[in-house]
Amino acid sequence: MSRKWIVGVDLGGTTTKLAFVTTEGEIVHKWEIPTDNSNEGQNITGNIAKAIDEKLAEHDQLKSNLLGIGMGAPGPVNYEKGIVLNVVNLGWPDNYPLKDRLEAATSLPAAIENDANSAALGEMWMGAGAGAKDLVCVTLGTGVGGGVIVGGKVVQGINGAAGEIGHITAIPSGGAPCNCGKTGCLETVASATGIVRLAKVELAKGLKGELSEKLAENSSITAKDVFDAARNSDELAKSILDEVSFHLGFALASIANTLNPEKIVLGGGVSKAGDILVDPVKNNFEKFAFSAVRDSTKLALATLGNDAGVLGAAWLIKNKLNQ
Ligand code: ZN
Fold first, then answer.
1. CA-closest candidate to residue 243, choices 201, 287, 198
2. Residues 27 and 101 reside in one and the same domain
């Protein structure tokens, strides 16, 4: 067992999460810095290096105590080459050599992965995966992210774009536009944004109930409002939940029919709704799953919350250095 630490970084468009993690997966220190995406994102790696040095000084630790730095970044990532292929909200040019830039800025060995894949690795290592080597993670947040792990390895695909579960087409015709340029993606119905959109479409028809009162009160509604109203048996909210869980259960069953993973782990802010979401998703999943899949693939809630990303990023280094 090494007593050294790994730096795990979860890079987001507005906030960068950092953590010092032991090779056993224990978070020793975690903190956040703002992501500076001005100047074509050229300050990002330097700011991370500075934040690490400051934190080491704060805790009287030497740089030699660090084994390496792993990072989950938005957008498709080529793990082998260490490049981010394209990402819209960080200012980086296409094919950005993030791994090299990180190594230059921090003088540490680096490894990078797509952020959803990082979160999946975190759950595999320390969370709901609990050692499962065949695992699919679906993050239901502002968007819908996915990470597919087969035999303990992230499935990258030929262009780093495997596991884009949010962009499975759920509504083949007449669906809402998605950020990716297509229409009717799963993300347009099963993300927090999608759930609110569905609610607004229904409310625009003049239907009254708890949700219309919330909208009148706050001039906006959230996905949590929809789940709360469904718990109170609000008809409109229940019908939205039916629609969301149908599409999600159907998509997850199709993924499971292809991969038969040990677990499908649901994470992200929307998953905090708990049983009111998971139960109907399970019902639909069981309806559409092949029998041998239905009997073996389990749905589970993520357990690491916001720590999944930094833990998975740290795991990249643990795995790479065989620690
Ligand atoms: Zn899409």
1. 198
2. yes
Which residues in 60-192 belong to E strands, given as ranges? 66-73, 77-78, 83-84, 110-114, 135-140, 144-150, 153-154
Asked if 282 and 136 sit in the same domain, the reply is yes
Q: Indicate whether this model's pTM tops 0.85.
A: yes
Under a CB-based contact definition with an 8 Å cutoff, are residues 134 and 92 in contact? no
136 Cα to the center of ligand 1, angstroms: 19
CA of 168 to the centre of ligand 1 (A): 7
The answer to whether residues 160 and 230 belong to one domain is yes
267 and 165 within one domain:
yes
Cα(159) to centroid(ligand 1), Å: 17
Q: What are 25-38's pLDDT values in tens digits?
A: 999 999 999 999 89
Question: Which contiguous run of DSSP H or E holds residue 21?
Answer: strand 15-22
Q: How many Å lie between the centroid of ligand 1 and the Cα of residue 188? A: 7
**Based on the domain organization, do 35 and 48 belong to the same domain?**
yes
Q: Tell me: the pLDDT tens digits for 291-319?
A: 999 999 999 999 998 899 999 999 999 99
Whether the predicted pLDDT of 16 surpasses 90? yes
| Judgement on whether residues 135 and 158 belong to the same structural domain of the protein | yes
Question: Ligand 1: distance of its center to the CA of 254 in Å?
Answer: 17
Domain that includes residue 109, residue range: 5-122+306-320
Q: Is residue 232 over pLDDT 90?
A: yes
